Amino acid sequence: MARIHIVRRKGEQIGFSVDLGLQRDGKRERRFFKIWDEAQQFSESYKGDPSPTGILFERKNEILHCYERLRDVGASFNEATEFFLKHGARKGNPEIKDVVSQLIKEKEEAGRKKKYLINLNKEYAKLLNYFGEDKKIAEIETEDIRKYIKKIGKKLNNVSKLNILRNLSLLFNYAIKKRHLGLNPISDIDRPKINFNPPSVMKPEDFKALLNYCLENKWYDRVAVFLLIGFCGIRKEEAAKLTWSNVDYINKKVYVPADVAKKGSYRRNKIPKNAMIWFEKIKDERKKGLIIGSNWENLIRNAVIGSKIEYKKNCIRHSFCSYALEAGWQLAEVVAYMGHNDDPQIIKTNYRELVEPKDAKGWWCILPDDYLDMLREIGEVPPHLASDDRTGIRREFEELYQKMKRMN
User: Is the pTM of this model over 0.70?
Assistant: First the structure.
């Protein structure tokens, strides 16, 4: 029931005021009545918020306790209220499984790639299994996350742990966006230190041996994929999704559609001259559809093992980047070829000064063995260079290298 006060003017009673207290906009609201019965009837029927005066009296112990705690940290009631309204006011406290489901659905509707969604689902499935599907999202605290990482990360390296934290942070930031949370419990967790190891780079002679091995076995699909990675900077996952129609023999370019590119950005990369010589050898007008089959990972692995070369994960694409920079390509050009437009500094920092200039020249002069034999037969190779040593840098290809460099 709202409180009733007598209203006087110049000492004389003129009516009654029903005090409805402070409203949500911070203003005090009152209702005036001339007759007591009307004021009392309204007061008894009023269903609004109770008078703040009554709240202060009823909850004085709680208020004093909060005041002491805020005073210890130098904060006022107003500051505490503002902080809560910004960070703590929630629209419900749903279960984790519902937040995960909503996040995945929105990512799918936004057109995120299937592989990305599968990885997110796997990561969040572990979280649900650990905490339980009925766990409320706002009940998970920083210490809970620390224990979770410690348990599932026993056999993981720091890179894997960092990826887990990034995916979890994505989930909690999404909950904040939907106003289910006020603060991200991941924000107070120190990220694991990642020691920088230079990217692995392939030797020109090894890449040449790999290409010739595939060509001898007529594995044209693998030859094409390796050419696209090593000379055009395309990711192997992207190359595996390209069709033969994406390779333009006339204009000497390879097209990477937006729905194939990892970053969703259409690219059109020039094919260097030495790479075009390889492509001409595998040209077949009857070819249609995908360049390589769905089991491309096994096909590539078997080719690498069969060639007996020194190989480390992603070293072919790393080699493209390092040899291109050392050969004098502009940074912006290398970044565009690789589809790394969002962070060119990564390319500059990680891939420069990894190879020698002579090896860079050798990379861009890699040619098929039978092509070199043909040049010898027609006498275009100087006699003193016509040896069987096909791993060195040949002076007769210096002009080819210079032309390629100007083209790029």
Answer: no
